[in-house]
Specification:
This protein has 462 residues and is mainly α. Helix content is 73%, strand content 0%. The protein has a single domain (23-232, 246-459), classed as MFS general substrate transporter like domains (Growth Hormone, Chain: A), CATH 1.20.1250.20. Pfam families: MFS_1.
């Protein structure tokens, strides 16, 4: 075991000396990343449609801020409700190229229930809308853990941070494109919020067909062979794609990097979901933007969001996951407070979103890299499922924001919105402290040499 770790460290050092804008990895790693980026973009879009058309939904169902907060929170928490068990099932069903056998059912689920949400007869009452969104998000949460884990298995360990950062740029770059498409659909249909649910999800059909044909044992063995020829370390041996071990969930929860990483990603999601819930209504009801404009302008932060994920994911391969997490949480602490000025003018709105976007999305792939770095062999999908479950529990933050907005005077009063921002910012401070005290570095020069209250052995670092 010690020799294998030393060899992996030597491989990392050999990669460092090779300069270039993009990492040198097998071509098949890039192809897998492209397919999985597109799939995750559609998964994320299936969730984001609701946020983009929320003002119109509020109007149709005559919903108050606290009720909307509960609805959004229940729907978001549902995203992670089954992720742990779904990811463990995926580990058993097949790993590496064989994860497509579990992933396809998740993609089918979140696509079908997105489309059903757009059927007027099924969502004439708010209960129908909520039920379909809950089911859809449950499929999507398991799907995300499978998609992220698959990326890590198609890429060498030395470039995992870059790969997960690039993959997660689908949320927001994929949702940026879909947000613009949603705005066009809303304008073209005179604000009919159901039409995006009927049209946008269909884009995944040709994407998944292409991925299904690509993901096969022949290509995975070729990737593994090319990675070794480049002196890189495949994350999974092609002979172990059908391997599975019992007790993975409890064993993974004993690892502080997995457990505390899960708490940190929960807090990060609380801020991210809270901001998405907060922004469009703030622009529409406080800033007096029309609904289509509120949907369109509320996705500006996604421009730097994607860049931030790739940049910080790559940086984390060098300076470490822990240090990168600390930088991102400190950044977000400041950025979230600045959103109180976002309705002052278009210029301020753009500037604040671009600044915040550098880290709003970037924190997720870095934490996922920490978790997958720390997972025991064969437990990667399960560890990711635990993180995904924790992450979407953080999706309950709109309940708190809805209470703040109502207490501050309702949708049209600014006071409650501002209190909500300070709540989200405080979540980032807590995450920053937990990262310092309760996680250990997994890559870079500080690997296992940083200070914390937990041992490196307990975090899977030999």
């Amino acid at each position: 075991m010690k020799n294998s770790v030393e060899q992996a460290n030597l491989n990392v050092e050999s990669v460092k000396v090779k300069k270039g804008l993009l990492p040198r990895v097998p071509t098949l790693s890039w192809t897998a990343l492209l397919f999985l980026w597109l799939i995750f973009a559609m998964n994320a879009t299936s969730r984001e449609i609701m946020n983009r058309v929320m003002p119109a939904i509020i109007d149709e169902y005559h919903l108050s801020a606290d009720v909307v907060g509960v609805i959004v929170s229940v729907i978001m928490v549902a995203t992670g409700a089954l992720s742990i068990w779904g990811a463990a099932w995926s580990d058993k069903r097949g790993q590496g190229w064989a994860r497509k056998y579990s992933g396809v059912w998740m993609a089918l689920g979140y696509t079908v229930f997105s489309i059903l949400t757009g059927v007027p007869a099924l969502t004439s009452f708010v209960a129908g809308f909520v039920i379909f969104q809950i089911i859809k998000n449950a499929f999507g949460g398991i799907g995300e853990s499978i998609e992220v884990t698959t990326v890590s298995e198609w890429w060498p360990k030395e470039r995992r941070g870059f790969a997960l950062g690039a993959h997660h740029s689908a949320y927001p770059w994929g949702t940026l494109l879909s947000g613009l498409l949603i705005s066009v659909i809303l304008v073209s249909t005179h604000g009919n919020w159901r039409m995006p649910f009927l049209i946008v999800p269909l884009l995944i059909i040709p994407i998944y067909i292409g991925y299904w044909m690509f993901s096969n044992p022949r290509n995975f063995k070729k990737y593994e062979r090319e990675a070794k020829n480049m002196n890189l370390t495949p994350s999974l041996d092609s002979g172990e794609v059908h391997g599975h071990k019992k007790g993975a969930i409890l064993e993974s929860l004993k690892n502080p990097n997995v457990l505390v990483g899960t708490i940190c990603v929960l807090l990060a999601e609380a801020a991210f979901t809270g901001l998405n819930f907060w922004l469009a209504p703030y622009l529409a009801f406080v800033g007096n933007f029309d609904y289509a404009a509120a949907a369109g302008w509320s996705v500006i932060f996604t421009i730097t969001g994607g860049i931030g994920q790739i940049f910080w994911g790559s940086i984390s391969d060098v300076i470490g996951r822990k240090r990168t997490m600390m930088i991102a949480f400190a950044w977000l602490t400041i950025a979230l407070v600045l959103f109180q000025f976002s309705a002052n003018s278009i210029l301020v709105l753009i500037a604040v979103q671009l600044f915040a976007g550098c880290c709003t999305n970037a924190i997720f792939p870095v934490i996922f890299s920490l978790v997958t770095d720390s997972a025991k062999e064969g437990y990667t999908g399960t560890a990711m499922g635990i993180a995904e479950t924790g992450m979407y529990i953080g999706g309950a933050s709109p309940v708190v924001l809805g209470i703040f907005i109502n207490a501050g005077g309702g949708w049209n009063a600014q006071g409650g919105y501002i209190t909500g921002l300070y709540f989200l910012s405080s979540c980032m401070i807590v995450a920053f402290i937990l990262t310092i005290l309760c996680t250990r570095e997994t890559v870079g020069k500080k690997r296992g040499k940083d200070w914390a209250l937990v041992s490196k052995k307990s975090c899977g670092i030999e």
